[in-house]
Amino acid sequence: VGVTAGAFSFGFVGDRLGRRRGLILATLWTVYSSFMAIWTYSYEWLLIFRALVGFGIGGFALRNALMFEFLPTSFRVKSAFLVLASWATGTIIEVPILMIPGLRWEYIMAINHPMH
């Protein structure tokens, strides 16, 4: 839900302020929300901040649009595949890490953030 809302919202911001500024704003939003999610001490606040992280990640669609505009047309499809496949690869790598017994959720959030 957060990613979808973020994609629409940051898409609007990207149209109004420019894709570069929209991407910078989405990145700052995501970093701040992720940092707050790492240091929260209640489950309710964790859910709120993780939803805000998802909202910021939705703005990363601007990254793809910005990147693909400047690539030669012959390389756009290959680069789109690499970008989108890297997201799935990061998730595949992350799942076994999350299954480590005794790993506290604060560490899971710290590990999870750089993978996005």
> Can you give the mean pLDDT?
84
- The helix fraction, in percent, is over 70%
Distance linking N and C termini? 17 Å
Low-confidence stretches: none
Q: Could you characterize the architecture of this molecule?
A:
The protein has 116 residues and is mainly α. Helix content is 84%, strand content 0%. Helix 2 (19-39) packs antiparallel against helix 4.
In short:
The protein is mainly alpha-helical.
Q: What secondary-structure arrangement, pairings included, does this model have?
A:
Elements: H1 2-17, H2 19-39, H3 43-58, H4 61-70, H5 73-98, H6 105-112
Helix pairs in contact: 1-2, 1-3, 2-3, 2-4, 2-6
Describe this protein with a few key phrases.
116 residues; mainly alpha; 6 helices; 84% helix
